[in-house]
Amino acid sequence: MKLQQYISSLRKFRVWHKYLGLSIAFFLFLSSITGILLALKKEVDILQPPTQKGESKELSNWKPISELADLAQKAFIEAYPVQSENPIDRLDIRPSKGIAKVLFENGFWEVQIDGTSGEVKSIAQRHSDWIEHLHDGSIIGDWFKLFSMNYLGLGALILITTGFWLWYGPKKVRKIKHR
């Protein structure tokens, strides 16, 4: 490659690097901040309620899952009557803690219930869940998650490639000039 071709490619890569960097800066900033918060979710109680401890780790001593779900839903509706139409999304069973976490579809609510006694140990919001949805773009929709994550991934690869050439290219130009 001739000197003018190297210089021309550096100019083109500089433009690509600048505009691509600007276009993904917002997504990278948002992903960075939410990533830091998600890394701290087990350390900061407001992000995710701490997992309580139940009476028994032995699953054979536990009440049936359906009963635990019913008890959690009743306790949740008692505490937050306006949420009475909020169905259960999933159950997170923690045998090592003796706890079942019952998570609801709307509002990122969680009820922690003792697997053996059925005693409600905690009712709280899981802020880490909406932060995770913000982090991966699914808060807008699955189509946006697919677009934004691929855009970030491809953009990062292109930025790495153009950044390498913007670092290495001038060295190559100086080497050719000093022959």
Describe the overall structure.
- It is a single chain.
- The protein has 179 residues and is α+β, with helices and mostly antiparallel strands.
- The protein has two domains: 97 residues, no CATH class; 77 residues, Roll (Nuclear Transport Factor 2, Chain: A), CATH 3.10.450.
- Helix content is 55%, strand content 14%.
Give the SSE map.
Blueprint: H1 3-39, H2 65-79, E1 88-94, E2 99-104, E3 109-114, E4 120-125, H3 127-136, H4 142-177
Antiparallel strand pairs: 1-2, 2-3, 3-4
Helix pairs in contact: 1-3, 1-4
Annotation keywords:
179 residues; alpha+beta; Nuclear Transport Factor 2, Chain: A; 2 domains; 4-stranded antiparallel β-sheet; 4 helices; 4 strands; 55% helix
